[in-house]
Amino acid sequence: MTNTQVTHIQIDNYGPWTVTPEPRREVDLQTLQSRLYADLSQLFGNRDGYVFFTRFDNMVAISNGIDIEAHELVQESVSNRYPVTMSLGVATGRSPVNALGTATELLQEAGSAQDQHRREILKGRPIDDEFRAEDDIQLAHFDVDNATEKYTDELNEFDTFINIEQGYAELMQYMRRAHDSLSFFVGGDNIIAICPDLDREAYRDAIEHVKQAVDVQLKVGVGRGASASDAGMDAKHALEECRADGKRVEFAF
Amino acid sequence: MTNTQVTHIQIDNYGPWTVTPEPRREVDLQTLQSRLYADLSQLFGNRDGYVFFTRFDNMVAISNGIDIEAHELVQESVSNRYPVTMSLGVATGRSPVNALGTATELLQEAGSAQDQHRREILKGRPIDDEFRAEDDIQLAHFDVDNATEKYTDELNEFDTFINIEQGYAELMQYMRRAHDSLSFFVGGDNIIAICPDLDREAYRDAIEHVKQAVDVQLKVGVGRGASASDAGMDAKHALEECRADGKRVEFAF
Amino acid sequence: MTNTQVTHIQIDNYGPWTVTPEPRREVDLQTLQSRLYADLSQLFGNRDGYVFFTRFDNMVAISNGIDIEAHELVQESVSNRYPVTMSLGVATGRSPVNALGTATELLQEAGSAQDQHRREILKGRPIDDEFRAEDDIQLAHFDVDNATEKYTDELNEFDTFINIEQGYAELMQYMRRAHDSLSFFVGGDNIIAICPDLDREAYRDAIEHVKQAVDVQLKVGVGRGASASDAGMDAKHALEECRADGKRVEFAF
Amino acid sequence: MTNTQVTHIQIDNYGPWTVTPEPRREVDLQTLQSRLYADLSQLFGNRDGYVFFTRFDNMVAISNGIDIEAHELVQESVSNRYPVTMSLGVATGRSPVNALGTATELLQEAGSAQDQHRREILKGRPIDDEFRAEDDIQLAHFDVDNATEKYTDELNEFDTFINIEQGYAELMQYMRRAHDSLSFFVGGDNIIAICPDLDREAYRDAIEHVKQAVDVQLKVGVGRGASASDAGMDAKHALEECRADGKRVEFAF
């Protein structure tokens, strides 16, 4: 049984800030956003969590093993070093989607994302250490079969990107609807999905769906662990086995 | 008449590097990728260009005004500070898609993206200063109407993201196919498109298409300039006018 | 009784790298060095340690509470994200100077700092958790009395800097020779010293020495803790008390 | 005849900010300071300038070729991405010390470094392009003879640092007093000095003085250029010649 702990990270009142008193230079916003994401990757990553950039002003972290004090420290570290602050909602659940649903609600109840008086909310309940287990996280690392040969070395970069993006857009929706999973593009031709306790058949189904819908061929390695980093590294090794033996779905456990 | 200069940025042999001798920790890859993007944003941005993260291992820059020497310096600065190197293809064209097509071909002709012996290619021809003009770039800044009220404050963050992502996936394909434009998600509910010389009707058409296809309501501000940063700032101001007066399409020129 | 754990961080073969095949641009070296230091500050800091930039190619960390596995991860994270690697020597001792002496020897025994075949050494023994204690670290936070009024707002910035630097140069030597302490300039008019079990009289003596030798008036707050961050935060609060009540030496314990 | 343009960079009201409402975590301050320095290195460096970290809350840039608009952009870029702002004073002079003196005065006249109402001052006059010349900057790059063999591989890191630091403290004071030069430690065993029009004898004198005073043996390469980056790269090459032929002073011009 999985038990995913999810943190919804939301920059406070970010939209209005980007245009007040007048629009800020885009290159600075891009630099700010991507560096904030890089820092959060390290801040959560050094505690065995994963962060996904999602929309950059809203990010999603898989935070099993990270308690409220650590969340406070992350929040403080950001406010010490950035011109913006962020709010955090933390929740857990058998299904990653439900966990995120609760995490988001904690923030929504505290006020709008564009409420200038709602700042540095920190709400929610991490999993107590005694209840953590080796199968809390199931993480699937997908990539596109022969992406370099088929796309990167053949099409212009935007058309390659359209293919990868279509594969992602289709997978993210299908995995969310059919399998209560959260799927995130992580660069190149890689997608990482945080899943409930799915079996091989579920992954075969998702890969088949994407193939049928947009003609993009995926494969996937699946890992399990008490933390995102453990499950994620296992998934990477399983994906390497796919590459080696030509399989479409490989479980590390 | 637009005359877009595009730089295709490709990390050399990146995929193999990420798994050699065995898979590298995902948080480090995420940090590396997003910081490299942030640095390129500044390196091009300080020369009035824009960079889009696209797939992170392949990025697209709008580089009008940036000559070959500056490209060399950017390439060298990255190799001085990162464990990876990158190749650059530079090309220009009336249509951004054609320009990118040529830029990509310059890299493809030099070898595969995963050829371990192809390193730090720099090919192509920037626009000579004497031929630069105030209408070289047409840049459109889209956002989603009432995204905070309709999505962020109402749905869980992933379902919000699905809506934004669907809007983006639809727009990027339509603008590429119907209008030879390159559209990039830049965070939040914002999309920036680099366009040929399009009129208001073309933008209305694209917005209508996205609304019909996936029920996401966009609006857009359009700017023009000799550089991405000039056109981009004008587009932002035009988008602010949309916000103020409720229009769907606003031109800054 | 203090028990300081020190990590000597040394970039492998850095000098030769900076001039091979020919001298690299200074701004890139400065960026590389200061970002590596910033990253190490976070990597150690997120585990309650402190890092001091010292000479940038060699840095000193106070690493109580950070085990060998964490050191490995820090080492790997740097090699995943930088064009250089680093070696680490870890040692402990009643006296910070002795601890650093042992840490440095571990690296020296493995080869020269400019031996191109000596890479990513990791040697030494952290303190086992069961032997850690609340008084393992004694940390002193010095600053210069009225630095803004007396120097910054009165002299040109270089002459201000000469005064601060003279105060630092004198203190670092005296504290090392007379009190077996390691003192580091941390910006502004601030110096942090890692000390053995010193009493108030020792600090009064050091402050008096600096005043006599170079006419720079210091004050100091002293903290104690099982980690650098605990001791450091206590020292800051003690220094705030000095500011409030005009004392020259304040202990937080 | 040299004509050095100097920018005094001062973080506004930084000291009070670091302890309000209570002391901020030192690792965050260190990260903030070193990243701000890294960013300024790139922002000025991409325009052929050099920045020196000095005290981190006050920095000194050699900014020949960087006009007021570029200074404005740098100032804005920092305020867009950091929780602090900075003021800039720009001045020029035959002597680097005089130029910095004027630059500092521009800030002092606008208010105290700790005046909470003095924010983002930008004052001063860059050199007009028509008056720039190839010998505007004279830059000397010193290092310590055989630092690795004599210190790094023999002493504990702090005692090595004491030797390097003593050499620097002595050189910085002597070069300022005797030769109107600004000398900055840049890591490792390297010191960069910005000088007026000095001859070989002046450098021999300074090296001899440091040798006599603190028994640290320096050598130096000297470059000249219209910008810091040009003069700096020439100085590096000259220093490489010193290494090759055993000379103590080498001019690139």
TrEMBL record, chains A, B, C, D:
Question: Which UniProt keywords are present, listed alphabetically?
Answer: GTP-binding, Hydrolase, Nucleotide-binding
Enzyme Commission (EC) number: 3.5.4.29
Q: According to the lineage, what is the superkingdom?
A: Archaea
Q: A single GO molecular function, which one? A: GTP cyclohydrolase IIa activity
Q: Does the keyword GTP-binding apply?
A: yes
Q: Which InterPro entries match?
A: GTP_CycHdrlase_3 (IPR007839), Nucleotide_cyclase (IPR029787), Rev_trsase/Diguanyl_cyclase (IPR043128)
- Catalyzed reactions: GTP + 3 H2O = 2-amino-5-formylamino-6-(5-phospho-D-ribosylamino)pyrimidin-4(3H)-one + 2 phosphate + 2 H(+)
Summary of the function given for this chain in its UniProt record: Catalyzes the formation of 2-amino-5-formylamino-6-ribofuranosylamino-4(3H)-pyrimidinone ribonucleotide monophosphate and inorganic phosphate from GTP. Also has an independent pyrophosphate phosphohydrolase activity.
Which family is it part of?
Belongs to the archaeal-type GTP cyclohydrolase family.
Q: Which HAMAP family match?
A: GTP_cyclohydro_3
- Protein name from the UniProt record: GTP cyclohydrolase III
Q: Specify the species.
A: Halovenus salina
- What is this organism's lineage? Archaea, Methanobacteriati, Methanobacteriota, Stenosarchaea group, Halobacteria
